[in-house]
């Protein structure tokens, strides 16, 4: 006899603390890693470093520095997924470590392979000694999903050496005021940009199964500073003409009118 399908989670806006957010998102990514890699694996490639759905590539962006300067550098990728970025870094001669909250995502990294360690851990409690890395990066990893981004930023600062750089990309904060739709319906403001209440999907017993946290652009800048970093660049990628793909709420229509991604380039003094 076929098991009945689980009911669809309820989408709501409510508070979600550090523990609930971490537990919910670990479970969500473990359950959805297979589908995510099937749907987006071609776009991401096995060994490309793509910062965002706009398709901004580190080869051109050089946000971590010129590729030739990466050789011999210890680099931590946070929220690595299948470790596509770490694989590209290794090809440049860097020594990456790929970290993710989701064991299933890291199984995809293991399936593809690569000459670097895979670590399953929470970004708010990095299992590394102080000053272990020259650089850190996170392409839509961890920061959009954590209740306390300053805790993560302080942890990243702790494991970086003096002069180290941390570059991370997140959904552009302005997107929270618009419906998450790629078509014309996604171009009309439907919520307050200033409402920081997390987006939560919960089961029929009220337990969160997915959590995403909103920060305004000013919040993100203040978080960077409170985390002990100096903000040296803020990149808002424009939608390129070659990219005809849709990715969730990202699309050429929306991308040509409003920003979809914010990339923060931070340095530790």
TrEMBL record:
UniProt entry keywords in alphabetical sequence: Methyltransferase, Transferase
GO BP terms in the entry: methylation
CDD domains to which the protein is assigned, alphabetical: AdoMet_MTases (cd02440)
Recorded GO MF terms: S-adenosylmethionine-dependent methyltransferase activity
Sequence ranges assigned to domain Methyltransferase type in this UniProt record: 76-168
Gene3D superfamilies registered for this protein in UniProt: Vaccinia Virus protein VP39 (3.40.50.150)
Residue segments, region Disordered: 1-26
InterPro entries found in the cross-reference section: Methyltransf_11 (IPR013216), Methyltransf_Superfamily (IPR050508), SAM-dependent_MTases_sf (IPR029063)
PANTHER family xrefs: METHYLTRANSFERASE, N6-ADENOSINE-METHYLTRANSFERASE TMT1A
Protein name (record): SAM-dependent methyltransferase
